[in-house]
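We emphasize that the prediction below concerns an isolated chain of 80 residues; any contacts that depend on oligomerization or on bound cofactors are therefore not represented. The input was used exactly as deposited, without trimming of termini.
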Amino acid sequence: MSTPFSTILVHFSGTDISGGYSVAIHDNVRKAVEVSKHVTMHTEQSNTINHKDAFYLATLGGAEVMGLQDIIGTSKVSIP
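Result of the prediction step, given as a token string:
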């Protein structure tokens, strides 16, 4: 499966470890997008993180980094 970040495994924590003012995943995703835009304005970088990529990084991206993508990282209903 090809992902937007298939060359280097990248993720940021979701609701389990809050690095900001909120433990809510949607707040962390929104802040990641805002910070990405801010960094782009003040550096030579031209790529920003969009909401879709930020949500991926907070969920399945983190699971893939840990090799647990078949167990965690999605909102699919599963029966063990």
